[in-house]
Amino acid sequence: MKQLKVFKSLVKDSLDAITKGSKKYHLWMAFLTLAILIGMYCYSIQLERGLSVTGMTDRVSWGLYISNFTFLVGVAAAAVMLVMPTYVLKDIDFKQAVLIGEGLAVSALIMCLAFVIADMGGPSVLWHMIPGIGVFNFPNSMLTWDVIVLNGYLFLNITIPFYILFRHYQGKEAKASVYVPGAILSVFWAVAIHLVTAFLYQGLQARPFWNNALLGPRFLASAFAAGPALIILVLAIIRTFTAFKIEDKTIKKIAMVVTVAAQINIIMLVSELFKEFYAPTHHSESAYYLFFGLDGKTALLPWIWTAISLNVLATVILTFHKLRNNLKVLYFACFILFIGIWIEKGFGLIVPGFIPGPYGKIAEYMPTGIEIGVTLGIWALGALIFTILAKTAIGIETGKLKYKK
Questions:
Q1: Which residue in 87, 273, 293, 348 has a CA-CA distance of 20 to 30 Å to 14?
Q2: What's the rounded mean pLDDT across residues 392-400?
Q3: Residue 223: pLDDT above 80?
């Protein structure tokens, strides 16, 4: 009963904290709310008319929604780059940022699930994924494995920070014996969620563009570059607009993680390009379409070459120690790296897998306004959830939110 009383107090104090703030904070929350409402309106049109209002067809059946899902799985997995040094290796420099990283993972996973629902056409078909009720097809289906690992990782990233914050709210230290086993498990689980997602694509024999042994490792490399890059940008905003102080050395250590992952990502990209173009086969047509166009179809050329340019530029900047230690330059590099990987891992990975089709037909894909509206609404939902989680966590960690006995 006592713990329930403390929980009720925590909920009450959290609601009080997230409804108060500066003018900039309220404008930010209003902007996110407006974007969510626009997304809901676009989604209502999709529910009424079906997926025909999107740019997807029977030839390109995965588009903007699954592109964002794939990318956000990596953002969620990247929280492990803070969890492992903090909880496993006892690196205190990461301790300030780890709860923020786990909050980001929770937001990313919720967005992942929202994008899956949007791509399925509507929530009414979700019952198919419920074990014992729908056709779950476990363990044969890679999709069911993906459902299990994503929801399991979401559970870990909710319960571990909640336990720590719940103890801190009461003025007590969290017991390592309680949360460290879960933290260690989350390290392996983070790798699993991205590998399983990669296996989901690799297992489709009719899509040779995805039949690449490097797909799984490259998923991890790009995730451990884009995710921590986003964490750096978020930490920069938090330490600018809140009382939660993040030291420079914390950001610089995370920057090292981003640098190494970005370099590995570029090396793997070069390896893939060599394999596709040095001795091309009929199965290289998707890569040709992506990078050079095919039969006059060039819809993805501006996207992929922009992505590669941003990735290379960001990696070069991060590689030089002097540039990386300049925080303004670091933030710029992280921003363009995040955008570059978002494009490359979205449009540059998902769409070309369907073009050309099994019979050689080229049907290009571009998202419609409805898709873009729904996508922006889901991103706004994720940002709103993260803002709420971060404001509560910061309040507890700075001592502003305390349990009053």
A1: 87
A2: 86
A3: yes
| Residues contacting 116, CB < 8 A, separation 6+ | 65, 69
In contact, 264 and 221? CB cutoff 8 Å: yes
pLDDT digits (tens, 9 = 90+) for 45-71: 999 898 889 989 888 888 899 999 999
Domain membership flag for residue 354:
yes
Which tokens in the block code for residue 2?
A: 């006592």
Give me the CATH number covering residue 115: 1.20.1630.10
Q: Is residue 158 domain-resident?
A: yes
277 neighbors 336 (Cβ within 8 angstroms): no
What is the distance between the alpha carbons of residues 126 and 89, in angstroms, rounded to a whole number? 40
3-state secondary structure the chain: CHHHHHHHHHHHHHHHHHCCCCHHHHHHHHHHHHHHHHHHHHHHHHHHHCHHHCCCCCCCCCCHHHHHHHHHHHHHHCCHHHHHHHHHCCCHHHHHHHHHHHHHHHHHHHHHHHHHHHHCCCHHHHHHHCCCCCCCCCCCCHHHHHHHHHHHHHHHHHHHHHHHHHHHHCCCCCCHHHHHHHHHHHHHHHHHHHHHHHHHHHCCCCCHHHCCCCHHHHHHHHHHHHHHHHHHHHHHHHHHHCCCCCCHHHHHHHHHHHHHHHHHHHHHHHHHHHHHHCCCCHHHHHHHHHHHCECCECCCHHHHHHHHHHHHHHHHHHHCHHHHCCHHHHHHHHHHHHHHHHHHHCCCCCHHHHCCCCCCCCCCCCCCHHHHHHHHHHHHHHHHHHHHHHHHHHHHHCCCCCCCC
Does 358 sit behind a cis peptide bond, omega within 30 degrees of 0 on the bond before it?
no
**Closest alpha carbon to 38 in 374, 384, 385:** 374
How far is residue 53 from each of residues 68, 116, 124, measured CA to CA in Å? 18, 17, 18
Q: Is residue 302 part of a domain?
A: yes
Give the separation between CA 199 and CA 213, rounded to whole angstroms: 10
Are the beta carbons of 301 and 292 closer than 8 angstroms?
A: yes
Q: Is residue 402 part of a domain?
A: no
What is the band of 89 on the pLDDT scale with cuts at 50, 70, 90? Answer: low
Q: Which domain holds residue 383?
A: 2-397
Domain count, the chain: 1
